[in-house]
Write a structure and sequence with these properties.
Helix content: 40-55%
Structural class: alpha/beta
Order of helices and strands: HEEEHHEHHEHEHEHEHEHHEEEHEEEEE
Distance between the termini: 56 Å
Radius of gyration: 27 Å
Largest sheet: 8 strands, mixed, barrel
Strand content: 15-25%
Strand order of the largest sheet: 1-2-4-5-6-7-8-9
Number of helices: 12
Length: 392
């Protein structure tokens, strides 16, 4: 569809609305606004139009504002607590010298749409200098009550963490398209873990978009997503739908997620207890061994079916033993690891204090091992007040 076709037929440009559901209420809490064009061939999305830099900015801004006005006019019928997610290209926003975006919003504020219901979604690449200008502009919009959402996270991660850190959005949108590919899903999950930690630090809410299958919804729920959006839940529509449309279904599906996760957690606790009981018996039988390396050699035979590496550290993270490492089904001693320090690892000291106080082992979550690149868990166990065993 040529841009000229749209610009010469603006009456057939109009908004579509995609519902956004919440994990805490199991109902619609907002709508994202999309632009559509009714051509002779049928309904066409015009998202590409706003990102095409070959189209003059004033024309893109004109169409953007037409969609916005029609969307706000239609939204006057919504409940007063429903949020409106408005997409804006960052560069267009910066070059909007007449502040037409803000003027339109203020016009409809007089009609009843409070600006604290507006979520401004920012997309589009920027240079560093522009990012600083955008930050100032967004803070200006915040003074009116608007909130900021960062868009396209997950689909293009380059530089996004820096932008999130500088802009500090209230909402971070995570694109779940990557979960459709088994090749990218693992690295994507690692990036998402970092993203969820960052969101927690800056007080941002995670919104997962492009949910097209139930396992993506489960992934979003498990990874701290408060808001959900995608074809699995509701396709974009010309008209608004009942807020409680999926309330029963979402309640049922999330209950299934909860049940599964509780069973998984119970299984992990049982595994931890079994490992702990087994270690206590081995410790009782081998108290008189002169070195940790001898002791680890015995342990390696006992845990041959599940472990590939064992070592001992003191409470400050200094390794007091060699690694005993499984290579080609044989156990070897790696003495070069003696005296290396691991206190820099996330949660290391926190786990040491817990084990020393509670006298219990800890089974970690799944993570990618630095050296072998495989997903593993680590079982940590207090040998005495000073030294701790780690089994990978």
């Amino acid at each position: 569809m040529a841009a000229l076709d749209i610009l010469t037929d603006l009456d057939t440009v109009f908004p579509y609305f995609q519902a956004i559901f919440s994990a805490d209420e199991h109902r619609i809490i907002g709508y994202e606004v999309f632009g559509r064009y009714l051509s002779k061939e049928g309904l066409i999305s015009i998202g590409y139009f706003f990102e095409d830099e070959q189209i003059p900015e004033e024309y893109r801004l004109l169409v953007d504002n037409i969609v916005l006005k029609k969307a706000l006019e239609k939204s006057l019928s919504l409940d007063e607590d429903i949020l409106l997610f408005i997409n804006r290209n960052a560069q267009l926003l910066l070059n909007d010298e007449d502040e037409s975006f803000l003027s339109i919003l203020q016009e409809y504020e007089m009609k009843g749409i409070k600006l604290n219901r507006i979520i401004l979604e920012i997309a589009g690449g920027l240079e560093q200098g522009d990012l600083e200008h955008l930050d100032h502009l967004l803070n200006y919009y915040r003074t009116y009550g608007m909130k900021i959402a960062m868009d396209k996270i997950g689909s293009d991660q380059n530089g996004q963490l820096d932008r999130i850190g500088q802009i500090s959005p209230e909402i971070i949108k995570v694109d779940l398209k990557a979960l459709r590919s088994t090749e990218t899903s693992r690295s994507f999950q690692d990036v998402l873990f970092t993203l969820s930690m960052l969101a927690r630090k800056i007080g941002a809410t995670l919104l997962f978009e492009n949910i097209e299958m139930v396992h993506q919804l489960q992934f979003a729920w498990k990874n701290g997503g408060r808001y959900y959006q995608g074809y699995y839940l509701q396709k974009p529509t010309e008209d608004f739908v009942d807020r409680g449309l999926l309330k029963d279904r979402l309640k049922k599906e999330i209950h299934e997620f909860i049940t599964y996760e509780k069973k998984n957690l119970v299984s992990l606790l049982e595994m931890r207890d079994k490992l702990q009981s087994k270690l206590q018996l081995i410790l009782a039988k081998n108290k008189r061994l002169e070195s940790y390396d001898d002791w680890l050699t015995i342990l390696s035979r006992e845990f041959d079916e599940i472990a590939f590496r064992l070592y001992v550290c003191d409470e400050d993270g200094f390794q007091k033993s060699a690694n005993i490492f499984k290579e080609n089904q044989n156990w070897i001693l790696q003495k070069e690891y003696i005296n290396k320090n691991w206190s820099w690892r996330p949660f290391f000291l926190e786990n040491i204090i817990y084990m020393r106080k509670e006298q219990k082992g800890i089974l970690s979550d799944l993570y990618s091992d630095i050296e072998i690149g495989e997903l593993i868990r680590t079982f940590s166990y207090p040998i005495n007040e000073r030294d701790f065993l780690f089994i990978d």
